[in-house]
Please model this.
Amino acid sequence: MTIAYELRCRECGKAYGLQPLSICDECFSPLEVVFDLEYARTRFTREAISQGPLNMWRYRALLPVADSYEPQTPAGLTPLLKAPRLAERIGARNLYIKNDAVCMPTLSFKDRVVAVALANAQAFGFDTVGCSSTGNLANAVAAQAARLGLKTFILVPADLEPAKILNTQVYGATLVRVEGNYDHVNRLCSQIADRYHWGFVNVNLRPYYAEGSKTVGYEIAEQLGWRLPDNIVCPMAGGSLITKIRKAFSELIALGLVEDKPVRFFGAQATGCSPISTAVKNGTDVIEPQRPNTIARSLAIGNPADGPYASRAIRASGGWAEDVSDVEIVSAIQELAETEGIFTETAGGVTTAVTARLYAHGRIQPDELTVTCVTGNGLKTTDCLQGAYEQHRAIRPRLTDFENFVEEHNAASQGFTLAQESYVR
Ligand SMILES: *Cc1c(COP(=O)(O)O)cnc(C)c1O
Ligand SMILES: [Zn+2]
Model:
């Protein structure tokens, strides 16, 4: 290779240089950015990284952007938190949460992928960008495009959560609601990208976009003191994030930044949209598309583009995949908030409930170092908690009223907590 990175077909290996393209014209397989690791070896070192900025751009030597690129969005470097109280509830002893519920600027891990995709949109000279989205991507594209002065068209399924719609429109993006599910929206976006020559972050810019997900993996390793965990639990929509965390770990091993060790990958989906977890359970990489029906809208992709690669990665690592019901998702959101003070959206409820089940079923052992990825913020999906909490009538500003309130409250709160058994199905 004569350049730092280029596009190649994942199946036939055909090289494409650098262009806005995501599918091989020879074999119709997805394209991927491949880095010259020998070239990166002198630049991607622990020392160089530690001197970089306190955001995802500290790993830029393995991100597809030109050396001259000046990042405008300091996304990433979110907390990796030890989670002892959740761990105790679910029978874990060495559990960490990677908390992208507080990723900047729009409170989901999509800020990472969009930062890389829009850098490339600018490099290719697009003045209009867009995406098909289940919500978080819409928010991230709208916010970052506003900051870069790009025009934005965002296409979403018509029934998206109100907060995700507002969080797109507030940035001045043109929001197009489409009758149908994500898979219909995505097909339309492919046609639009061709016709209008716009940069669609998850269509013709998808290979660049996907590399942004690697920063979750780099951060986990660096935050663990340049070590890899035993297990990763990761939510899956299109299946890209889980495969890119794995790619990040392989690169770190290849470049000697961490010791080589096996890491098992565990995928999490909602039962109402579980094409990848179903494939894993059936021992195959062939994805049967589904029609999504779940409150976990950000994961509701019935025909996941990277599904076969996600299934392959999970199975090759010795991991597993699980899916959980909408009721379990809501309980897990509440449980994560109550134990660790993290309010996640439905996708994080999926990951948390699946994590609990993996321990309950003995697929993860208590002492193994396990990182579970919380990828989005609960303030975006408050509708799923509608009616969950009773509003007590207001009291007068008097101590006696308060004393009565406390008495009533104590009498009423025979609150239930979710025991580990509730995840055994
Ligand atoms: C998009 C998304 C995911 C999954 O991403 P894929 O790479 O498509 O599998 C996970 N969590 C949240 C909150 C998301 O918005
Ligand atoms: Zn090919």
The first strand starts at residue 5 and ends at 9. The pocket of zinc ion (ligand 2) is lined by residues 9, 11-12, 14, 24, 26-27, 29 (CB under 6 Å).
